[in-house]
Each structure stands twice: as structure tokens, then as C-alpha cells.
Amino acid sequence: MALHVVALSGGKDSTALALGMAERGMPVDHYVITPTGNEPAAMIAHWRKLADLLGNPLTIASQGKSLHGEIRRQAILPNHRARWCTRILKLDPYYA
Fold first, then answer.
1. pTM attached to this predicted model
2. CA distance 91 to 69
3. What is the CATH number of domain 5-95?
């Protein structure tokens, strides 16, 4: 049995994908978000509204780390040579 998961960033592409799938009646078992811990209030409001529109709660995959905290811990801003932020804040929590 396949598990259908949609990862939501909060951006236009993932939002359109989720809403389009729901509109077409496509099966989705989980909608997952991986917050950075530093989202503005508008992003939280967007996720809440999206959950209401989809009729499903959003599963939060987080290890309690924040972007600002990780910048301090890593002692470097994420950049094209140091892409630690995607792994630590987005991928690791999802796979944990």
C-alpha cells in the first residue's frame, strides 16, 4: 500500500499542488511542513488557512531547531557552498 505525502513549503508551487490534488480528489495521507522556527506570523496564518481549505491537519516535522539558532551554532550563514540549512532544518526532521 502506497503512502501519499505532500510536502508543503508554504510557497506558491507546493500550495498550488496541494490544492490542485484536493480539487481533483487525489488521495493524500499526510500534508507535511518543516518549519524553520523563524516563520513570520503571515506564514503561520497561511498554513492554518491551507489546512482548513484541505480539510486535513498539517503534520509538523521539526526537531525544535531554528534558523537563527543554527546560524549561531554553525557560525556561518547558509550559502551556495555551505548548504547545511536544508539538511538540518528540512530533511533531517522529515526523516527522523
1. 0.82
2. 17
3. 3.40.50.620
Q: Which three cell numbers stand for residue 64?
A: 525544535
- Pick the closest to residue 9 from 40, 27, 32 (CA basis): 32
- The pLDDT value recorded for residue 96 is 75
Query: pLDDT value at position 28?
Result: 94
Grid-cell match 499526510, residue found: 30
Name the residue among 36, 73, 22, 72 with its Cα closest to residue 6: 22
Buried b (16+ CB within 10 A) or exposed e, 23-59: eeeeeeeebebbbbeebeeebeebbeebbeebebebe
**pLDDT for the residue 1:** 78
Each domain of the chain, given as residue ranges in start order, spans 5-95
